[in-house]
Amino acid sequence: MPPVWTAAQAAAINIRGCDLLVSAAAGSGKTAALTERIIRAITREDNPLDITRILAVTFTRAAAAELRRRISQALSEHLLAEPGNTRLVGQLMLLGSAKICTIDAFYNEIVKTYFQRTNLPAGYRIADDAELTLLQKAVMESLINRSFAAGGTFPVLADNFTGNRDDRQLADFFIGLYENIRVFPEGVGFLSTYAEILKNEAGLGFFHTRAGRVLSDRLCEELECYLWIFNTALANFMDDAAWKAAYSEGYTADRDHILALLEAIRSCDYDTARETALSYSPKKLKTLRNKTPEIERFYSQRNKIKYRLMEIAARYFSRPGSTIPDTFKKTAEVCLGLYDFLSQYEKELREEKLSRGICDFEDIRRITLELLVDQNGQPTDIAREYACRFDEILIDEYQDVDRVQDMIFRALSTCCNRFMVGDIKQSIYSFRGAEPSLFSGYRARYKIWNAGRRYKPEPAGLSVFMSNNFRCDENIINFVNLVCLRIFPACASLGYVPEDNLIFSKKTPAGYRPPPVVVTLIHKGSAEDSGKDAGDSAPGASDNEAMLGQPELRYIAGEISRLLREEKNADGSPVKPGDIAVLCRKRDTCGRVAEALGALGIPATSDNESGYYTDPAVSLIISLLTVIDNPQKDIPLAAVLRSPLFGFTMDDLICIRRQAEESCSLYDALELASTQDGNLAGRCRRFVEKLSAYRVLSRSLPADELLRHILRDISAFSLAGGSEGQERLLRLYEYARRFEAGSFRGLYNFIHYVNNAIEAEAKLGEEAAEPSEDAVNVITIHHAKGLEFNICFVAGCGKEFNFSKIRGADFLPDPEVGPAVRLRDPTGLARVNNQLMRAAVLKQQRCDTEEEMRLLYVAMTRARERLYLTAWLGGRQKLENKLDDIEILRRYPGSFAVLSAKSYLDWLLLSLDREPPAGAPYEFKIITDNEVPQPVRPAPADSRTKKEHEDRTSRDPTELERLFDERFSFVYPHAHLTRLPAKLSVSRLYPGILDEGDNSYDLSEVSGAGKVTVPELLPTTKKPASPSAFAADKKAANSAERGTATHVFLQFCNFERCRAHGIDSELAYLIEKKFISKHLAYLVDKRQIEAFFNSDLYALLSRAKWIRREQRFNILLPASLFTERPGLAAELKDEELLIQGVVDLFFEDGDGRLILCDYKTDHLTPAELADPKLAAAKLGERYKPQLSYYASALSRICGRRPDRVVIYSTPLGGTVDVEVDIF
User: Fold this and answer.
1) 957 CB-near residues (< 8 Å, 6+ apart)
2) What are the CA-CA distances from residue 754 to residues 629, 631, 711, 731, 1131 (Å)?
3) Is residue 194 part of a domain?
4) 888, 911, 931 — which closes off a domain?
5) CB neighbour list of residue 590: distance below 8 Å, 6 or more residues apart
6) For 1059-1095, what is each residue's pLDDT tens digit?
7) pTM listed for this prediction
């Protein structure tokens, strides 16, 4: 049955002819609509698109893979309905080459396409985070040392940021500042641009500057709230004679002071505002007895406002207006100094990266911007050329783009073919540079589509709201709307409109009554009631048991236990651990919650800060590699010996150590012990022999192949402790592979690299794990985005937002306020804040507060059926004070009440009634820690009832024995298929390859599901790659190495340029562009190259209509072709293998013949060189199978059989024809 689309979904699917912005709320079917839009574009009868004419980009590989999977599924379903539709077949075949990828991958594709316009080497690669961290620190520390030694202005510049820092901290500061600034479109140029702006603003009145406007806006917003509070108090209580006599004079004076300060600020008169702020002297109020609760609330507010007004005077108006221009000028000087220094750092870092052939994703993004957007912000010729490739551009999660990404996609669009989908309420990645204001800007400019009017494309674009939520129960929807309607309108940058409200659209089972959302506020009760403090635990309790002594954790763990014991999901199934998620704002909280659950025996997985390098399996393998490299290192050796791999006890190590002199190393003692008699000596001998074997391999194997061998040899994956540990070991293997990419570097260099990464605390890019189906998922809210669970707990709602990092910053590069620096005071002994820094702090705090709103929204919309929000507040008095404050602020119509919130709890209290009305979608509980019950341990998930246990134990032993034999003697009927590789290279194929042993082909490829399989061992008989190809002496290099070098030259050289300027010139060019190393260039046989340009083949190439070189291909061939065993061939008759390869050269000659050519550098005997027929027979027999595969692939690529298949032999200097078979 085809899906029924809502009106908004249908609009998002069908509207074309203009740019379209789709605000897709949580659970609104965004991916389904995006998929359907693509499907309809390529299947419509009127002017259908090819899928290759559509560009669809996402932020994550998982999202891109999911979109591709859905498109494939949809096309397959269409083909079932129309099996004869050849166009659909073609589109399904083209899906693999369609541009459906991540944004970073798309940028990389553009750079590779036009890399001749860049200064990148041809073989560049994306470096991992750990490698970049080490390189950045090395370059920065070197530059700092040289800058200090040179003197000049750098020591003065550094003095603004050093304080008590050592040189390493200074390097970290500069690197962090560079990374923050380089994401701006201007890059490091941001500093020089804004330095000039600051110089110009130094001549303006402070409140006329950008920083001054931000500060005045924030102060006016706050003061208007205070003015409302005093006006309300005066209006409510003036009729009370006692109140009037005691308080009216003081309240009136405070109100008048606020009015005067507001007037001065709004008049942009800093000096008058300063004079007014500093003149504040609160009047002492008379005593008033028997105050009502309402009077007490306003009295408390007056005291808080009084101290805040004095703080405003001291914080924002302490400096005379005459000193502010000097602050702007000094800040501008610092910015120019930073610009010079960071520009030099950027230059040196770029040179280091180029010398290593590496770059990072930000480099790729910056190069893409330079390729597509000129200095005036207009599309370049490349952008216009590339834009012609696509009829539609679809960008997912547009709320998370930044200015650079927006500029790139605008440059590639035609102003009527962009489809931008996202949800500004879910923009939670500002720390990565996301700018939600871009999304809200489009929403403000585009006309809102609605179903009530006839659609007509709008030149400026259309905005569609997809607000139907198909995920959450009705109570959750109503609750979320209740909170959002109170807090989001206060956020002007969000542009919240009624269309943003969620619409309940979920289908629920008949008779199902959704449970209410539960908000639980826990505070500390009296110690006398419980006999102990809320945080205490029983003496002797384990760490896990002690975790349950914390009230909020105890409540969450107890409620989860109750759900597992008693409750069912909407579909009637029992609640399982995998149905539940606990969402936390910080990772450290995740670990604490997981420990609390573990104390009850509830399985839980968590996002925690445990280091990658301290993982037991990773640490063990690194220690083993270190010992293989240098067994004289005692600590790694002791760790390996004590590990489960070898099982030596501490007593064993002590006994071994005592057998050698104190000056000897542990390994020397081990070798000595191995020469003795006894059980311990035998174990020592086995260890020494094993280590010696590994050390022999390490001399010739690259680090990745050695590691692969070790992982297999010691069965490391069985020691890794589950899938997470196995993934970490595989990640270590992948880093070794990347480390060895391009050249042989060896174990010593890899260990040195890893140790430096550990010392620098460099992260190895650990990705968030997939949700567990067998355990409670305790994850951060950021990790939860895009996920959904039946039951969600939002923990830590009472924890206040932490702005200390912003307030303590030395430098804030804000695009709106401009750069702000904490400058040295006149004495030079301290660094103090100034008006620029104060304004930047206020601006950043506001941005972070708005992001916290969006985080709360994301957290609340993860739950399908049950939602809990919990908060721990502390003492009773703190609770009463907060409730009194909220009681007044709830009545204030302005935005300050929302924007001054310090926690999620503040927003909940502003939005909800403490005593919910009848029919409310939520329950509000305020309980003491003493009222939180002790959790009950749930029954194990795999427990059996007593009856089940009795049934099993009473069964006939003979029956059990038969069942045991049957199960353990089972033979998988399709075992022959388990040995089929995911893919094979043409160069390794021959007809009987599938008849060989398990190691005759490599199964270490990436599987079709995208998961890395367990690495297979390389054949031990295969000689490993070695650095001998880099021999400096050409005579020392063998013929195979010289042939390889010559083949590489033919592979990459430009025929016309080489013919025109000579072989030496072309070699120099290829070395410069990193196509070939200097070592290989030295080995190139120039005589053979000269013979190539004088050959009949080159004469044909000179007259060719077109030429294709280095053509990569993937084809499916029958698996039965690769076995010579009839039985196996019969079993494989319906199976296919994916064959990969690269065709050296094919072209269409002047007579229209399709010619395929493969270069061969095989050694030929003098007789074969003298008689080309002998050479042809030898080469033809040897390479006929390989060239048959090439010819089969070419037949599919070109739609015709090649007319001629030849081998160009470099020793022979000519071609030989080969008869091939087409499969």
Assistant:
1) none
2) 13, 17, 17, 13, 47
3) no
4) 931
5) 582, 584, 606, 607, 608, 778, 779, 780
6) 999 999 999 988 887 788 888 888 999 999 999 999 9
7) 0.78
